[in-house]
Amino acid sequence: MFPKPKSMLVPNTYEFESGPMVKATGFREYDARWLFEKEINLMGIQALGMGLGALIAELGVKQEIVTGHDFRGYSASIKYALISGLMAAGCKVHDIGLAVTPMAYFAQFDLDVPCVAMVTASHNDNGWTGVKMGANRPLTFGPDEMTRLKQIVLNAEFNNKAGGSYQFHENFPARYIADLTSRPKLKRKLKVVVACGNGTAGAFAPQVMEAIGCEVIPLDTELDHTFPKYNPNPEDMEMLHAIRDAVLKHKADAGLGFDGDGDRCGVVDNTGEEIFADKVGVMLARDMSAIHKDAQFVVDVKSTGLFVTDPVLQKQGAKTAYWKTGHSYMKRRTNEMGALAGFEKSGHFFFNKPFGRGYDDGLVSAIAICEMLDRAPDKSMADLKDALPKTWSSPTMSPHCADETKYGVADAVVKHFEALQKNGDKVAGQKIRDLVTVNGVRVTVEDGSWGLVRASSNKPELVVVVESPVSEQRMRDMFEAMDSVLRTHPEVGAYNQKI
Question: In the predicted model, what is the mean pLDDT of residues 61-79?
Answer without folding.
Answer: 97
